[in-house]
């Protein structure tokens, strides 16, 4: 017998990569799944009328806003007014100092863990030591955010990015993944974007970019006009000659497709050609943030059509600056309610394996399979939602419960 073996039994186990197992057992050795099968092992700790699912994957968040009790502005607010609020908020916070920021990040990470999170992709705006977080915590992919429209600052930003991807990985297990994030087309000088893509390609690190987020962004790229220009003028950043007329989101996608793993964050306004291109490039994923999408009042997101056409889609919560919490489970329940036509099997995969694939960690996480890491979430089932296990899983009363170790 292995030195550290655990056996869990549950009413249902949802491996995601295969159909659910009833009255099932999961055997874990040294944190790795050794076996799972549909019968209750008498030696297992019986977790009762719950489901074991793979730990959830939050493919996009900004933990730096985790101390917000509510979003920065009222739902349906203008995106650029919201951005101004973000700038003010960050200025105020920088006065509070790095330790206050670290405590905010820690708070956010604890919230993700409590919500059944196994993997969190965070956008990082200043350097800190992830080795200081309480352990165990969800695995982290840290995307260093870079932005400037000033050509004289491109070199410094690239140097910051270079240092970030060369950081020593903290000695804790499992290791943190370091990636890069050019913020968005309207805040990133084209030379900075090119430099970051090249850096990510050379070092084989993932890259995430807010892209096709607003109509205004498309207008800026196409014509060099519109609300983005007004906002950049307001901050004294506008450079009239910077945006080549006739640039499109597709120009960005073409470059992202050169990478091993790239994340198109939001993709609210991807057009038919973009979707067709992404379907041919499944290593470039669209990260849909359902409740944030609704908060800004965008027209319907094309995630269902994208999935049907073979585009890789994953789920993010975005931050507490635009969302009430950091629970991927709540995002999935929100989708279940709004889109009863979508199979719950698809929803579960979006919040687990879809995210792990987007971040290039599906060889270790995202499904319950022999040899993968035993990162689990426990769902207290809704027994009134019918006999179908998926209906019980996503029934109105189902919720994420305490992790198995806190029961064992
Ligand atoms: Zn974001």
Question: Which labels suit this protein?
Answer:
408 residues, alpha/beta, Urease, subunit C, domain 1, TIM Barrel, 2 domains, seven-stranded mixed beta sheet, four-stranded parallel beta sheet, 15 helices, 21% strand, binds zinc ion
In the CATH hierarchy, the architecture of the largest domain is Alpha-Beta Barrel
Tell me, what's the shape? globular
For the biggest sheet, the summary is: 7 strands, mixed
Overall mean pLDDT: 93
- Please identify the top-level CATH class of the largest domain: Alpha Beta
Describe this structure in words.
The chain has 2 domains: 5-54 and 368-407, Urease, subunit C, domain 1, CATH 2.30.40.10; 56-358, Alpha-Beta Barrel (TIM Barrel), CATH 3.20.20. Helix 3 links the parallel strand 8 (139-146) and strand 9 (177-182). It is globular and about 70 Å long. The strands form 3 sheets. Strands 1, 2, 3, 4, 5, 14 and 15 form a 7-stranded mixed β-sheet that branches. It has a 4-stranded parallel β-sheet with strand order 6-7-8-9. By secondary structure, the protein is α/β, with parallel strands linked by helices. The protein contains 15 helices and 15 strands. The model has no long low-confidence stretch (mean pLDDT 93). Zinc ion is lined by residues 60, 62, 123, 210, 265, 318. Residues 60, 62, 123, 210, 265, 318 line the site of zinc ion.
